Amino acid sequence: MKVLKFGGTSVGSVESLRNVKDIVTGQKEPVIVVVSALGGVTNQLIEMTRLAQSGSNDYEPILAQVAQRHRDVIAGVVPEAMQGQCSAIVTQFIDNLHSFYGTLSLNRDLPQQEQQRLADAIVCHGEVMSSAIVACMIEGAVPHFSPNFIKTRERDGRHVLEAELTRQLIANEWPAVEGIHVAQGFIADDADEHFKTNLGRGGSDYTAALIAAALRADSQEIWTDVDGFYDKDPRKYDDARLLDQMTYAQAQELCDAGAKVIYPPTLRPVAELGIPVWVKNTFNPTVPGTVIR
Ligand code: ADP
Ligand code: ASP
Ligand code: MG
After folding, report:
1. Ligand 2 midpoint to CA 112 (Å)
2. Listed residue (212, 235, 233, 182) closest to 293, CA to CA
3. Of 14, 35, 236, 245, which has the highest C-beta tally within 10 A?
């Protein structure tokens, strides 16, 4: 069994989602697919929160654009028989967002904690919508809701992973893995009060690693928009060199130094169990990529 994580650019357009579908359905073993929000949507959700908190209605055209983008993607990738159902799901989430932003903009004196909880509930919607589309796109895919098994607790005002509880809940969620499963990256749930939380920006990589480790997957694959892990950012440096393999320690060092391709906490749970992590390109899937082990 493998855990495949697809980042924002990989699920960001009709063309890239078609690649995702081919990659997932081409696997010869059971897979759990972990998805990020459509590229740029998390930033838009946060920007709309800021606008609503300032009492402005300027979030409305952005929300209309977010809604239209998801509808366009559904029309482009979801089989016709599933399009109505998928659109209804996404429309429901867009309606939720309308009411969250309305609450924020009309109640500017809400206590800080309530504002923060609304903001956290809002930012979950990117992954909830993208995962609904991916699950509807792939026939027979089984949808899961990550806040049911990714748990955090508040410590010093931050959401901190409850590692052991999360491990047990993931094991309960998948007593066995057959076929194709889809879950959201990034999003989580407070273990005590059950408000929605998250693992931090870029956290979908970590969700995938937590699932891979809890289920002792054969491997984790991080599907992104570059051919693998380079010695430096290939978008900034023309002479960046693609590494075909790395140790966990080498990769961790580059992640800690800011290599955005893997969210820094990701490698630890899989490294402890010796689960190999591949970094691969959704837009160039025949390139082997980088293996970290
Ligand atoms: P995703 O949305 O798939 O999670 P990210 O934007 O988080 O993608 O990470 C991929 C990006 O990481 C690449 O587009 C690249 O610009 C950047 N990056 C930074 N350092 C490295 C590196 N050493 N190797 C590969 N990519 C890197
Ligand atoms: N969508 C979230 C973010 O933009 C999580 C992720 O992409 O990994 O930070
Ligand atoms: Mg990322």
Report:
1. 24
2. 212
3. 35
CA separation for the pair 126, 119 (Å, rounded): 12
Q: Is the CB of 37 under 6 A from ligand 2?
A: yes
pLDDT tens digits, 50-84: 999 999 999 999 999 999 999 999 999 999 999 99
For residues 155 and 122, give the distance between their C-alpha atoms in angstroms, rounded to a whole number. 21
DSSP 226: S
User: How many residues in the chain?
Assistant: 293
Closest CA to 207 of 94, 137, 124, 118: 124
The ligand whose atoms approach the alpha carbon of 240 most closely is 1
pLDDT tens for 113-151 read 999 999 999 999 999 999 999 999 999 999 999 999 999
Return the biggest CA–CA distance within the chain: 54
> Residue 187: enclosing H or E segment and its boundaries?
strand 187-190
Is the pLDDT at 157 greater than 90? The verdict is: no
Ligand 2 atom nearest the C-alpha of 186 is 5
Which numbered atom of ligand 1 lies nearest the CA of 225?
14
The phi, psi pair for 68, rounded to 5°, reads: -65, -40
Cα–Cα distance for residue pair 5/217, rounded to 1 Å: 13
- Say how far apart CA 279 and CA 258 lie, in whole Å: 16
Phi-psi region of 138 (alpha: psi -120 to 50; beta: other; left: phi over 0): beta
Rounded CA separation 21/124 (Å): 23
CA 8 – ligand 2 centroid, Å = 7
How much is the average pLDDT of 5-25? 98
List the domains of the chain with CATH numbers.
Answer: 2-292 (3.40.1160.10)
Interatomic CA distance for residues 44 and 137, integer angstroms: 24
Asked if 229 contacts 243 with a C-beta cutoff of 8 angstroms, the reply is yes
